[in-house]
Amino acid sequence: MKTKVTMDPERWKAEVLTKYPSKVAKKRAKSIVVNEGDEVKQIQANIRTIPGIITQRGCTYAGCKGVVLGPTRDIINLVHGPIGCSFYAWLTRRNQTLPPTEDSPNFMMYSFSTDMQDSNIVFGGETKLKQAIREAFEIFKPKNIGIFSTCPVGLIGDDVHAVAREMKAELGINIFGFSCEGYKGVSQSAGHHIANNQIFKHVVGLNDTPVEGKFKVNLLGEYNIGGDAFELERIFEKVGITLISTFSGNSTIDSFELAHHADLNMIMCHRSINYLAEMMETKFGIPWIKVNFIGADATAKSLRKIAQYFGDAGLAAKVEEVIAEEMALVAKELESIKARTQDKTAMMFVGGSRAHHYQELFNELGMKTLSAGYEFGHRDDYEGRRVIPTIQVDADSRNIEEIHVEADPTRYKPRKTEAELKALEEQGLKFSEYEGMMTEMEKGALVIDDISHYEMEKLVEMYEPDVFCAGIKEKYCVQKMGIPLKQLHSYDYGGPYAGFEGAVNFYKDIDMIVSTSIWKMVKAPWQKESVIEAEYAL
Amino acid sequence: MLLRHTTDKIIDREALTVNPAKTCQPVGAMYAVLGIHGCLPHSHGSQGCCSYHRSALTRHYKEPVMAATSSFTEGSSVFGGQANLVQAIDTMFAVYNPDVVAVHSTCLSETIGDDLTQIIAKAKEEGHVPAGKYVFHANTPSYVGSHVTGYANMVTAMVKSFSMKSATKKNQVNIISGWVEPSDMREIKRIASEMMAKIVLFPDTSDVLDAPMTGKHEFYPKGGVTVPELISTGDSKFTIGLGPLCTLDACIKLENQCKVKFESLELPIGIQATDAFITALSRAAGVQVPDSLTEDRGRLIDVIADMQKYLYGKRVALFGDPDTLVPLTEFLIALDMKPVYIVTGTPDKTFDARMSSILSAKVPEAKFKAGERADIFLLHQWIKQQGVDLLIGNTYGKYVARDENIPFVRLGFPILDRVGHSYFPMVGYAGAMNLVTKILDVIMDKIDREVPEEKVELVM
Lengths: 538, 460
Prior knowledge:
The structure holds 2 protein chains of 2 kinds. By secondary structure, chain A is of the alpha/beta class. Chain A has helices at residues 9-17, 22-31, 60-69, 83-88, 118-123, 126-140, 151-156, 160-171, 188-202, 228-239, 253-257, 270-284, 296-310, 313-341, 354-364, 379-383, 418-426, 453-463, 472-480, 499-515, 529-537; strands spanning 32-34, 76-80, 112-113, 144-149, 174-178, 216-222, 242-248, 264-267, 288-290, 345-349, 368-373, 446-448, 467-470, 485-487. Helix content of chain A is 44%, strand content 12%. In chain A, strand 10 (345-349), helix 15 (354-364) and strand 11 (368-373) form a beta-alpha-beta unit. In chain A, helix 6 runs parallel beside helix 8 (160-171), helix 9 (188-202) packs parallel to helix 12 (270-284) and helix 13 packs antiparallel against helix 14 (313-341). Chain A is globular. Chain B contains 18 helices and 14 strands. Chain B has 3 domains: 25-161, Nitrogenase molybdenum iron protein domain (Rossmann fold, 3-Layer(aba) Sandwich); 173-291, Rossmann fold, CATH 3.40.50; 293-454, Rossmann fold (3-Layer(aba) Sandwich). The longest helix of chain B has 23 residues, at 428-450. By secondary structure, chain B is of the alpha/beta class. The chains are: A alpha/beta, B alpha/beta. At the A-B interface, helix 3, helix 4, strand 3, helix 5 and helix 6 of A face strand 1, helix 1, helix 2, strand 3 and helix 3 of B. Strand 3 of chain A pairs antiparallel with strand 1 of chain B, so a sheet runs across the interface.
């Protein structure tokens, strides 16, 4: 049995920091926090990475093209830069998509690049970019083209926005650019913000054709990894909720153009998409709530929140009926599995939202989360949105554009009166609020922002968790140490994990990972002293 | 259809690359230095590159890939990344204690013009590099060449930074490995050992990217060429460079620097290229070719002769890196197959000439292209115009293979959806045997799957 869970987190922190040069230790100390439980402590987050420390983080381009726009199938995402950026973001995130017919546009299997050469760096790449757009238009006949800037583009001064405007006029399709150079901000996070701004400016609200259906919602920050959005679409359809658009799993630009017709925005991944929700509220009057469809209980809770918001007895009854039906199946599966997962331990270091959401699933399995953290969460993702007024934007992130939004003179329409909103709040529904990861974590849990490889190894070594959750770069390091690693970005090519069916998939996968036989065979028989002793005992 | 927008109508492209048959320099540099024992690769740029490159290599090997980055911010991108690199060197030695730090650049640091020679010299002067430790670099601008170029640049930098000529010659032959798998490097060492030829192989990623599970993560696995071995390459009696694009520059550098003569060969893929390698090694090391290798060769010839019916005249499309494609094409022709379409995203001035000399007599109808816009999209369009019986390339080929129902053999970088490439060689006679069996397997599987029921054969 594992016994190291009693390890004192303060001692762990002190011991780990001793290895760093003093300046580094001082900085890292603020990003490693032992959770208090009742009162949420301040954590340092969204600051620059320490050079040479071996971070998990990626860049702004990855946050913009890879995360937010990547999953949208009817847009050509043209990467303006040398070939690498386009190549590495080519099908490596598992955003599944399902075009309705054989003829529907789907560019997601393609990687488009201007493949900049040294001459383009020297003389500028705008001419090549324009030509690439013309060729993409001629060959693929897209209705939308997005242009993504990479590191050198900003340095040499190519103006992708001017090119977009010019080509939009020439070709008559929607073309817009993203200044998501990799060096902007300090992580993927800046890229999310840039993507939100441009989708909002160039796409949302373009189509005023009324949308049919009852209980119209958008789902924000759900990217359909391993089919998560498919499962949520199934559930919404079953309860009778009209999903206008998902940002951006299994999505189309066409659906984004209609997003302003929704009466409620639901946020899954707060980090990547809260900007869009806020802007849509200001411009169109659509309120937003935080939801979580990771975990069967969490899914039920979120469905009830939606029913509560719409205040329709029929919807509420249908939601309860669906929950009862789905939960019966979930409970049946969980029953046998939980015996093998109960009281086991997990750690999670994932992006900007899953390290929080997946704690729900582990709770359902009776597992304890000893430590968690984000690559690029901000303080509000850790401590809750109430701390936003106290967050100081530092020099590294100051140049990320904040766009000014005002109420649309003709299309702004409050979905609820002030009195209605207040009544709903009194019933416990929270608008424009996210309480963060730390509020839900146990006292004594270690919360670590932008974890380094070294810190990760020390966690595994000193705590020996039963499951470590992170990404591909961490997976095989941790597994070499004899601890299974569950990828919570790619789901290890499984999924979905969202919704009710997703919860069951996750239970099964965790059961497999903690029960796999091969971990017990790491040592050869002749490497085990007991074998030799046994011989002597004969 | 996965690639539903690809048609047989080819429109000339001057600017747009679609579905590239290459990636960028730094990943090649990162891979090369993992073949040095105790080495930590360092990416001097913004951290996204490093993260992508580590992920690509990790997905390909299903192994840990360690590398650090300068983590540029907007400020350093404008004012230069010197402070970032110096701080990174400090942090790396304090926390990860490498013997060697190998720095490569990205399009970011190259565009702003960071002088790596000067920054590293400064770091040394200021005492950031502990005694007995090494920091060296290669410039790897992503907007020149491809991942292959990055590998070549880093291998040349190894020679430049380490190879030294002393008073005494050593009775050893340098083998500079082109971009091949750990399994291939292991096979090259096995062949040399069978021949009793003393060699220094570099880079050598065997025992690094195919490390065993022991219950401990070895941050620096036991494999890799050691620094003393690298230094000693200046005293070797001869150098063999495998794959000209990846190793010719390094061979020339080693000759200029230490007066070691060299021979540049194709990667030993297939019969003729392996014959050439063994002949060259036997000559350079002054050793006989043992019967065991001649017998390996004979077994390979035997299998090909036995199974000729399934290979003869089959049309093949392939994509990958030039150093792999050239000997592979030659091998396919030896199998009497017809390599009709060949693309590589890597620019290579000698590619057309090398391909023409192999193909013009046997497959005059063959189309091949290297460099910008020689991409998988173009290859697919050619296939749409007239089909093929076999596709060989990296994992991205699977989308074409599925749409067009073509038997598919995974070969090259990256292979993200299968294992084996890092454990079973493709070089040498053993590697050729692996290749032939893989090709036969996929061709014969398709026959089994598709022939009418009354035509299914038990014996094939």
